Amino acid sequence: MNLPNYITLSRIFSIPLLIWILLTKHIGSLHGEKELLAAAVFILASITDGLDGYLARKRGQVTTMGMLLDPLADKLMVTAAFITLVQVNPHVVSAWVAVIIIGREFLVSGLRSIAASEGFTIQASDLGKMKMVVQIVSVVAAMLDMRWWDAEWNYGRFHFVLGIDLIAKMAIWFMVALSLISAIDYFIGFWKKIERSSERRRRRAFVLTRRRKSSDVATT
Question: In angstroms, what CA-CA distances link 81 with 24, 32, 33, 46, 101?
Fold first, then answer.
């Protein structure tokens, strides 16, 4: 075990804590303590998603365990957050939204597993990275929306209103669209590489067949 792997494990251990905070009645919500604490836990866990990979590459500590745990932690965190939000804030996160988002995560994981078994990798696209940012915004906004639909600030003559409910719903819809588009993008990239791999195999088989025929002619 090394530091990057410990950071990844901390993200996994934060998942039951996040679920407990969102579902418990032992933390007051009069002033939004529960929602703010849940948002803080999710943001910190999301930060570790990039931190563990950065440290692993910088310190030369990329391990098989880390390569296994990192995507697993991501999928568990996303799944836990959206399933819990379906229960605690269904007017923002509907069940079908959670199904699309979670299904996309496991689809991409399956494609990557097949690609790895075929000897190639599928790199994270810009759409996938953008989806991750929007995902963080949407989850945090949906958590805050449990307590505040609008946030207001007064600075002297200035009165500022932030529509948290509107931001949460727009971010959710945007994330659903990005999830579908990025899933299609991953599938297209996967299919192209599978086709290239199959073509190489056919060429190798053809070359080997021709060599065998040539050797058979030479021996006769």
Answer: 15, 18, 18, 12, 11
